[in-house]
Amino acid sequence: MSADAHAPSLAEYVSHHLQNFGTSHQDKLVDFSIINLDTVFWSVFCGIVACIFMYVVARKATSETPNRIQSMLEVLVEMADTQSKAQIHGDRRFIAPLALTIFVWISLMNCMDFLPVDLFGQLFQWLGLSDHIPYHRVVPTADLNGTVGISLGVVVLMFYFGIKVKGLKGFLHELFAAPFGIWLAPFNFALNIIEYIAKIISLAMRLWGNMYAGELLFLMIAMLGAYAALSIGGSFLFVGHVIAGTIWAIFHILIVFLQAFIFMILTLVYLGLAHEGH
Predict the structure, then answer these.
(1) Is 59 a catalytic residue?
(2) Which parts of the chain span the membrane according to its record (predicted)?
(3) Is residue 202 among the annotated active site residues?
């Protein structure tokens, strides 16, 4: 039998791996009745791991010579505290830990992209679950639903701190009176709502776009290895697969942590704006 009978085309392979495992099949572009279970699971899993990791390191922290893990976490804590000081003028007892948690959480979710693309598909096949879980995406931040959900959380925090700092009356007054005055309240309200929507989009699209592109490149590189294994191009494709995969993985390390850092910084900037008035 020819190799073509066994190997999916690049389009079929990529299309299969870019589908989420949800509560039902999504036919429409937007369908709020569908929940992507893989995104929810891995988001919660990475969040739990991040919290446990920081808790364990904090419990074992010593004032003597720290180990490498404690030193790394101390650097992250100092980074989060420094950035929060630059953006938030006031009580930062919640803000700095929030910034640290966001950075570690998103970094872990982004790092899921380094797992082999066919790892869980092969695992489900061995366990006899491939019929029940036909699709599975392991990178929550490569799913726009996941990044929009995180961004919505940031906007909710903006509302919370806006009300906490300015009071409900002050917050509503700013929502309807800024920037053109209370006599143009409908225009002010529309403008402020557009501003909040723009913040959601800017946070979500930036993180999703970078991680989606990274996942897509890993899939295409994986296909080089698959074709090489099936002798479609032979050793030339295998060498290309190894070289391209190594180079992109090294470069992607920078993207993974840079995007987590940018998301953290933008969150602090937006929360800082919530503490201030127009």
Answers:
(1) no
(2) 40-58, 94-115, 144-163, 175-197, 217-240, 247-273
(3) yes
